[in-house]
Amino acid sequence: MVFVETESPETKPKIVSSKQKVKCQRLPKNIKKSLESKIHWTIIAILYEITQDYNETEKHLNNLKERLLKCIATLEVPVDELNYLSNVQKVLKEENKKYILMEEGLQHLEEEITKDVSTLHTVDEKMQILQKKIKALKHELAALETEADQLFHRDTKHDLGLPGLSVEYFKLPTLQNEILKIGNPHALLDDMNIIQQSDEMKNMMGFLEQLYEKADHRCTEEQ
Q: Which residues form a coiled coil (predicted)?
């Protein structure tokens, strides 16, 4: 009786009689190429770390490589185990594809993060510019309010310092009565209407309204 121990983790050592023959086969070319590539890159990795006796180490490793490749070339394994090795190769290829996809996804994610960071910097710069503009507008508004205060001289009670009207002023005839005394009042009314609708008059009235609004707002704040 002889023992044949398989390398598959899913199987246990099998007891095979001497009369039974185990079908063996040499490794396929793709597996040999894969093993040779792994040996090659392992040697490269080792030599990369060498700082002394580089040539001697390289020569020694190459000799070991040749001996190992000769053993692999003549190595025979049970046919059943070849299926297991082939499955391992497939799994490795699939895992390699997943790794490549993950690397691409990670690179894309890094690019998106870089874009987001750049956008945040741009937004921050725009916010700083807007804050400066708002500050400048506040100073300009304060200057306009100061000018408005100077135009409207107010006393301690915050009333507008306008000159008082005499009693005789209220006894004067109204403008309407004076217009009726004119020979052609309709023409005068038309002229006054034209003046009232003119751009100059509208601009002046708008300016006066703004001044009154600012004065009222100022009085409300100080109260």
A: 92-154
